[in-house]
Amino acid sequence: MAEGMHRYGYQGLRTDKVIEALGITKGAFYHYFTDKANVAQAVIAEMHAQAYAQTWSQLRHAPGPVLANLVAALEAIKASATEASVALGCPVTNLIQEMAPLDDAIRNQLEQILTGELAAIGNAIEHGQAQGQLNPALNAQDEALYILNALQGAYSTAKLFRSKAMFYKGIEAIIRYVQALGLGSPAAA
Q1: Best label site of 150, 158, 181, 186, fewest CB within 10 Å?
Q2: Percent of the chain with pLDDT over 70
Q3: Residue ranges per structural domain of the chain
Q4: Selection from 59, 60, 100, 55 nearest residue 81 by Cα
Q5: What is the pTM (predicted TM-score) of this model?
Q6: Any idea which fold 40-184 has?
């Protein structure tokens, strides 16, 4: 289901194809899902929300310098990119662009995912400031928003150009930005 929604979008996802791919009866499908929106909500909750939380959870629990942990999270995102995943784009970004104006329940779920990302990044920056690793003049939540916006932009631009190399360059630019938040960087002076 998640793969079909990623490939065809919510609007292009056909329940009959999902039923066929799962090898179940129509009755069994509708026993678990009331409609296509319910399928999308389950995919978001069970797959996307967990994957995004896992990506950023290392910021809260990883030992070591905050900048290194932020860079490690971005490097993990970069390493997970394939030509196929770049061509299809970020599944959450795709759903945001397609469904946010159309379905409030789906929009709320997607908003929770991004709110979690913003909180994890912002908390990491605040922790780095408290530890004396990051510029204390930074507004942690503003910096987190910038990083998240840049990441979503890297996904979208790479999708448009169908270029994993462009995605890599976008992530590398975000990494340079994150590194510039440190006290020892020229940008922090």
Answers
A1: 186
A2: 96
A3: 40-184
A4: 55
A5: 0.87
A6: Tetracycline Repressor; domain 2 (1.10.357)
